[in-house]
Amino acid sequence: MKNHKTAFAIIILLMSAAFGLAQSEPNTAKFNLSKDKVLYVVGYAHLDTEWRWDYTTTIDDFIKNTLDDNFKLFEKYQGYNFNFTGSTRYAMMKEYYPDKYQKMKDYIAQGRWFVSGSSVDEGDVLNVSPESVIRQILYGNDYFRKEFGKESNDYMLPDCFGFSASLPSVLAHCGLKGFSTQKLTWRSAVGIPFNIGVWEGPDGKSVIAALNPTLYLSQIPARLDINDVWVKRVEDNGAKYGVFADYRYYGVGDMGGAAREQDVINALESQNNPDSKIKIVLASSGQMYDDITAEQRAKLPRYKGDLLLTLHSAGAITSQAYMKRWNCKNELLADSAERAAVAAQWLG
User: Of residues 292 and 30, which shows the higher confidence score?
Assistant: First the structure.
């Protein structure tokens, strides 16, 4: 056990040095969450790049629809914005829809389309090694910086089947501030530790985590700004921890696309009303993590340990010997391929 902890610490130290340029921008808080009551509403379209379909379907239908459907909403509703993850999907856009890609880049520059999640794709984080997660962030945010001059400060995994205790340490050492998922509503082994709080890794490093943001395909009700459930959640967080904030997904899944038009209308009509009980902010997936100050962060509830599901994580993928064997083979093959590629490059 001691050797494993030592090895983990060495990997983290080496890789955190490699992320010196991947730190998120300095905190420029937009809201004073010690008194402003804010619900961060994150518009999102979940896309399983490959699930019950092939890559051709993803490229021909789902990627194209994600671009076109959001363009229509951008043009019709000035206040609408959108979050999308996965640098590999952006690379598909660039290769197969170059004209639409350029149009999307304009919306990114305007701050209406947000690159989110920091990763190459929304991949599994249970079977894989910490190095794999580090590479997701390294290559994902590197693509975002080179293509858009932007990067993400969060790791967004709405639909993955459980999360290991080491994940917050890895994310924090990679310069990320936040993590979100809706999957703990799928029979979490430890329940949902908090709505928003601090998830701490084995070495004491941590990220702010939004662990109960509703389903990513949830609908926005009319007048969300006076909705009893969400007003209570925001006010309870303020009363208990001094941070009057909470975090909510809305959108569609699992085939990409854009938010339903009525949800956009309801979200926009929930803003800036004279009788509002909370502020509704259509936000990037990472804005809340920037707005929470270090002093406020210290007051949030904390959790340390695994976040597993009773039916889909410890009781499914990671318990199967054949899955572990295949994953081990994949890791060995990937390592061999990388070594061979480096040697080939050196040899010209």
Answer: 292
